[in-house]
What we know:
Order of helices and strands: HHHHEEH
Helix content: over 70%
Distance between the termini: 11 Å
Strand order of the largest sheet: 1-2
Shape: elongated
Amino acid sequence: MPRYPLIQRLLHWIIAIIVLGTLAAGLTIGILDGFKGTKEALGGELTGMLYKYHKTFGVIILGAMTVRIIVKLIMSKPEYAQPLGRFEHIASNAVHGLLYVLLLLMPILGWLATDAGNFPVQFFEGKIPGFIDKDMDLYGTLMGLHGFFGWLVAVLLVLHIAGALKHWLIDRDGVMGRMGFF
């Protein structure tokens, strides 16, 4: 069965797990209406941890996606055991392409928004230096885009997972094995 090289499979699954956790944290913050609402619902300590790790793992996603794109450009893509139909091929390329773009853009927008709001860009217990001046209008715009794209990533992930499950459980055409370990 044709498979992606091990490094690509590892990057895929590591990033997937980190994205799911980071997305869950971000959507929780968004649903609870930002820092104030999250603090009221979850308390100060949990809110601080949620923000810190959301930012930390956002930076990790940015780095990991950069590595993933470099590896993707260097390494070949395995052929499908059974070629995809035209619609599936177009849909797959569109979903994957948008996910790649958004998983680079989201951390950058979050970083810039945090910086524009004059909030710390945290990385575990440290802080990453900012590089733009405080601008609350820019903060609002960037944070709005960051939130909107977060929901778009959630929709794309549902489509990606649904497509994977279709290939695995219905079509049984080996597509899942390309990114699997067993």
